[in-house]
């Protein structure tokens, strides 16, 4: 004898008036069970819930009980009582009920998945479910394009750094604190500061306005994002939006030119067409200990297990019977050795791992590494002057009602924080500087042990904390970024 779960649903009073009331459905289903000699295990009812999705209390309980095999058949009055979505109906029948041997019967359509005809109907249902999915995708794409072309933001679920989502207007509104940091990133980059150094500066100051530490990839993504000039990229074209503008267009395009120039420079130096997207951990930071030129990866032939014996070698090493022109050793090619990728990467990972667990070793590494963040006094004083002028500009803007009092207060707060940081740098003695560097190093190394991270995260960490690695036949020398 079949043990049946009866399910009934109604979403509106109109449906109840048309003969779809909960009581009418359950009454007809109970009588059908009597005729068939089936036992009703339980009756599940969702009153006032839409059939467009399966997030309904009774439906969720039915699914839970089904997975615990409390009954062997689900009975509904009509297919659309289960769901109005072909996709959800197919999911429930195939992925929930059939998967655990539970039959499904719909009274009106005489649909029974335990019969050959019912099984054939599942195949037909799957075709319509696929059609429904494609239609949903098409509607979403049209909606996405429509939002962009009408000036609304399409990326409201995850806001870019610098913005908050304004639900009423459907746009991205500038977050004063974060927006000031975005402006500073663009400013520093145009001043010639490298992406890696920008990361260090922002993280040293406590990554204000951001929960996680900055990484080179996030800074570069920020610099390349057209959202900051009030535009959005869609299928290769830029569309103007109603989002708040944070970066002036001239500044943005100047940064894009600078990014391209630096990319080209790194490509020429390292023979790497995608310097910021290299799949190898140490690309761009290895230097030859003999001639000072970059090391490049040489990919070996694939072995039976599909692995390769890759190695690094000097860009100016003699290869293939010829040599590249160099400006040392009387124009002879560099004769430095080869460095196995796996061995070199293991050395680097082990070195970082040791620093993470040994404070004394970390302090030694800091004290024997020249402070790469050291800036001359004149440069710091120029920055102070620039901040004074910047604050004066905001005060003038407030006087002519170009910005609100709240915006002036926020800019004054940020300006004060930056000035305080510079003044502290000017006043620090060597001991304080060394202690700060140790603190900075510990923060950079404070994540999960690098040996336990996936390769991609190891690569980001390595490029954040290592300035360069000098390789000779006898040893490797790591120059740290702290």
From TrEMBL:
The Gene Ontology biological process terms listed for this entry are: DNA integration
The protein here is known as Phage integrase
Keyword terms, alphabetized: DNA integration, DNA recombination, DNA-binding
Give an example GO molecular function. DNA strand exchange activity
Q: Which residues form the Resolvase/invertase-type recombinase catalytic domain?
A: 3-151
Q: Cite the CDD domains for this sequence.
A: Ser_Recombinase
The answer to whether UniProt assigns keyword Glycosyltransferase to this entry is no
Q: What PROSITE patterns does the record tag this protein with?
A: RECOMBINASE_DNA_BIND (PS51737), RECOMBINASES_1 (PS00397), RECOMBINASES_3 (PS51736)
Highest taxon of the lineage? Bacteria
**Is DNA-binding among the key words of this record?**
yes
Active site per database record: 11
Q: By its UniProt entry, which InterPro entries does this protein fall under?
A: DNA_bind_recomb_sf (IPR038109), DNA_bind_recombinase_dom (IPR011109), Recombinase_CS (IPR006118), Resolv_N (IPR006119), Resolvase-like_N_sf (IPR036162), SSR_resolvase (IPR050639), Zn_ribbon_recom_dom (IPR025827)
Concerning SUPFAM superfamilies, the annotation shows: Resolvase-like
Recombinase domain residues are 160-265
């Amino acid at each position: 004898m079949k043990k049946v779960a009866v399910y009934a649903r109604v979403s509106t009073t109109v449906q109840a008036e048309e003969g779809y009331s909960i009581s009418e459905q359950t009454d007809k289903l109970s009588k059908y069970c009597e005729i068939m000699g089936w036992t009703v295990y339980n009756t599940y009812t969702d009153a006032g819930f839409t059939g467009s999705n399966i997030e309904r209390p009774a439906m969720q309980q039915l699914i839970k009980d089904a997975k615990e095999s409390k009954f062997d058949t689900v009975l509904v009055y009509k297919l659309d009582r289960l769901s109005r979505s072909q996709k959800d109906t197919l999911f429930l029948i195939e992925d929930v009920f059939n998967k655990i041997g539970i039959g499904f019967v719909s009274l009106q359509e005489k649909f029974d998945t335990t019969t050959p005809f019912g099984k054939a109907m599942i195949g037909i249902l799957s075709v319509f479910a696929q059609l429904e999915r494609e239609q949903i995708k098409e509607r979403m794409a049209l909606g996405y394009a429509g939002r962009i072309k009408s000036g609304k933001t399409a990326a409201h679920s995850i806001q870019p750094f610098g913005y908050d989502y304004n639900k009423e207007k459907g746009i991205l509104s500038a977050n004063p604190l974060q927006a000031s940091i975005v402006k500073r990133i663009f400013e520093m980059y145009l001043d010639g500061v490298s992406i890696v150094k920008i990361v260090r500066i922002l993280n040293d100051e406590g990554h204000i306005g951001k929960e996680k530490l900055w990484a080179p990839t996030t800074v570069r993504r920020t610099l390349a994002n057209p959202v900051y000039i009030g535009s959005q990229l869609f299928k290769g074209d830029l569309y103007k939006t109603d989002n708040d503008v944070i970066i002036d267009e001239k500044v943005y395009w100047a940064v894009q030119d600078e990014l391209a120039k630096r990319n080209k420079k790194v490509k020429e130096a390292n023979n790497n067409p995608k310097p910021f997207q290299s799949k190898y951990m140490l690309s761009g930071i290895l230097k030859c200990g003999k001639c000072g030129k970059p090391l490049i990866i040489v990919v070996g032939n694939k072995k039976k297990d599909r692995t390769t014996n890759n190695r690094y070698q000097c860009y100016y090493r003699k290869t293939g019977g010829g040599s590249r022109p160099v400006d040392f050793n009387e124009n002879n090619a560099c004769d430095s050795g080869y460095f196995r990728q796996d061995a070199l990467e293991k050395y680097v990972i082990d070195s970082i791992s040791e620093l993470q667990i040994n404070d004394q070793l970390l302090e030694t590494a800091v004290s024997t590494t020249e402070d790469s963040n050291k800036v001359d006094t004149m440069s710091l004083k120029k920055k102070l002057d620039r901040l004074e002028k910047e604050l004066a500009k905001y005060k003038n803007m407030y006087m002519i009602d170009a910005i609100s009092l709240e915006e002036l207060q926020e800019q004054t707060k940020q300006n004060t924080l930056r000035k305080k940081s510079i003044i502290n740098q000017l006043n620090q003695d060597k001991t304080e500087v060394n202690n700060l560097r140790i603190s900075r190093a510990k923060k950079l190394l404070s994540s999960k042990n690098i040996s336990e991270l996936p390769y991609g995260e190891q690569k980001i960490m390595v490029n954040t904390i290592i300035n360069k690695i000098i390789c000779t036949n006898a040893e490797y020398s790591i120059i740290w970024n702290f």
